[in-house]
Task: structure prediction
Amino acid sequence: MRRAAAAPVRALSGETAAARRKVTAMGLLRMKRLGEKICMVTAHDYPSAAHVGAAGVDVALCGDSLGMVALGYADTRPVTLDEMLHHCRAARRGLGAVGDAPLLVMDLPFGAYEESPAVALRAAHRAVKEGGADGVKVEGGSPRVAATVETLVDAGVAVMGHVGLTPQAVAVTGGFRAQGRTARRARRLVDEALALERAGAFAVVAECVPATVGAALSRALAVPCVGIGAGPGCDGQVLVYSDLLGSLAHPHHASHVPRFCRVFAEVGKESRRGLAAFRDAVRTGAFPSDEYSPYAMSDAEAARFAASLARDADRRREDSDEVRRRHIADDEYEIAKLY
Result:
């Protein structure tokens, strides 16, 4: 199926995308110092990244949540490094179409970095060189993860940390459960985040923790703490693109949208309305009308074409009838009247 090349997406605010300055890891640190809130949204393909960039979002996260919202996996663990690179490249092209201002961070997926810092470094280098990412994100704050972060940063890779609910570890944590709900566990999250900061992480995501813990993390860290279900006291917020836009508006998905996610648009409902309208227009013959049939043939060429068809009309009709009879003979459901 052929269609026109993708057209550039216009900026959605008064500030044009092309005029925006490129967001960097150092720029995020400055935003924290100035008290400016950081906005981060996931982007896993060309159109989502183009819209994220045009909207003036600071950070585009090519997150492994794409396994659930784009690939249909039950959780993020099946996502492979090659799948992440494929989607990250598309996201980079989408950002590039609207000025390329947001910082693009790619999740290192489950199994791509846990074995050793050396394995993690190879995966991170691929994220930057092949995926076009500006940096990577890793989950967890254990000494092993902190050592990995230090190795990556020492090798020139910008790293974002992630504490609280770590979706790649759902088998260990017992599912998608809030974290840091006891004083002991909350203090451990603070210590883990500080360890990631000491290792060189330029920011830390805090997921599904009480608002008091999110605020405490932001106060304790010199680097930005970006919350997702972590309350208003964080230095910024991140949501999944399809969740905040209501893109997957059907009962199954609705039952899985996190409680912390506010739906800012009803894209899914409008998508279903548009698809149903298209279906009905096709079935009734209302689409395409002459207005949407723009390609014309000159009268002379149309006459020559009609004459060409007339010359062998009988033979083509016989051939078509034979093919039709063969199809019916091969269709056991038609023969048995099972339709």
